[in-house]
Amino acid sequence: MKKTLIGLALCFAANAHAQPERPASAVETASASLRDIAPSITATGQVQSRSGAEMAAGTSGPLAWVAEPGTAVKKGEVIARLDTGEIRLQRAEQGARLTRSEIALRQAERELERLRASGTAVSRYQLDQAENTRDLAKSDLEIARATLRQTDDRLARAEVRAPFAGVIAERLRREGEEINRGDVIARLQDTEHLELRLFLPLRHVRAIQPGSSVQVQLAPDRAVAGQVRAIVPVGDARTQSFEALIDLPQQEAGFAVGRSLQVVLPLESPQQKLAVPRDAVVIREDGLSVYVVRSGKAARVSVKTGSAQGEWVAIEGPVSPQEAVVVRGAETLHDGDPVKVIGEHRPGMAGQSKNKGLS
Q1: 25-38+271-344 is classed in which CATH architecture?
Q2: What residues does 353 pair with on adjacent strands?
Q3: Cα separation of 270 and 273, whole Å?
């Protein structure tokens, strides 16, 4: 009886100390890989047109017509027109004065020729008078012609034409308003040739060069390449920053004048480093780590992070290239936990995997 009781006690003790095996955790993984990564900074810039103009009136008069905001215009196309009724009346008067000047010149030339043909019968004084009259008639004719050209120029300036192809961004004056020369009527923006204007800390002025390639983020999972066109190395003492201008692709549809975009600018030449997706790095009180899948279990590996590029971040630690690291599901893992890989995470495809069994 005593032996039976001892056996039962030992059995209960063994069952009490036995731990149930944890079920395998569903995870998504990605392969650690060697990538060319450069230290970089992220800055916010604003899209602006490389060609923008305030279209002003070239002459005075009532505004007869102006294009609607949003109207696309070609180079040389009329975007505003002033009423030219008064100018045309002035031109008609000046045309008549020009005709009178031409008649007066012909009459003065004939009179001079007649006096010269008279020989000694005409005094020198009379010849001088006739020559002066002819010269004055010539001057009057030139003045009349210049005045007419000025009026023709005013007529041409009564039509405000686009200096480049673009879109009417704003209409400042309306039909019927009296316009003075130099008054801004509308604003024109070239929406095809865009640039990004941003300000960077002065300490990076030597790291960015014209011609450098940068990544412009249109969305969290979408970026396009831009090129640094110009650097304005004159710093702002108050903000401790300098200006950089970046050319944007013309065919890209995600740009709009005034839109703010994030730009990633490399500070050094790229170097090949071991990298993992950002979501693979687990942040806990005792430091940074990643979980590597080895023999069906999660092995916690402490790492240090370095430069980042897009969704990838460089790491230092005992992780080999092509090893599978946990990207989704790592938050609740512990070292040695069994795992079940249900999908492969593909950076750049936010929320997508080859198998969507992870919830």
Answers
A1: Beta Barrel (2.40)
A2: 345
A3: 9
Whole-angstrom distance, CA of residue 61 vs CA of residue 65 = 12
Beta bridge partner(s), residue 262: 44, 217
Scanning the structure block, which residue is given the tokens 């304005």? 232
Q: Which CATH class name applies to 40-50+190-266? A: mainly beta
117: exposed, middle or buried (C-beta count within 10 Å: 0-12, 13-18, 19+)? exposed
- Residue 85 is given by DSSP the state H
For 228-240, write each residue's pLDDT tens digit.
888 887 777 777 7
Q: Say if residues 67 and 211 touch (Cβ distance below 8 Å).
A: no
Q: Is the CB of residue 171 less than 8 Å from the CB of residue 67?
A: yes
pLDDT digits (tens, 9 = 90+) for 278-294: 889 999 888 999 999 99
Which of 321, 327, 318 is closest to 358 using CA atoms?
327
Place of tokens 């008639």: 137
Q: What are phi and psi of 323, to 5 degrees?
A: -70, 145
Residue 32 CB burial class (10 angstroms; 0-12, 13-18, ≥19): buried
Question: pTM (2 decimals)?
Answer: 0.59
Domain ranges of the chain: 25-38+271-344, 40-50+190-266, 55-167
- Which residue reads 């412009």 in tokens? 216
Q: Are strands 339-344 and 25-31 parallel, antiparallel or unpaired?
A: parallel
- Residue 162 CA to residue 169 CA, distance in Å, equals 13
Query: How far is the C-alpha of 98 from the C-alpha of 203, rounded, in Å?
Result: 68
Q: In what order do the strands lie in the sheet with 72-73?
A: 52-56, 184-189, 166-171, 72-73
The three-class DSSP label of residue 281 is coil
Tell me, rounded to whole angstroms, the distance of Cα 109 from its chain centroid: 66
The tally of CA atoms less than 13 A away on the side-chain side of residue 152 is: 7
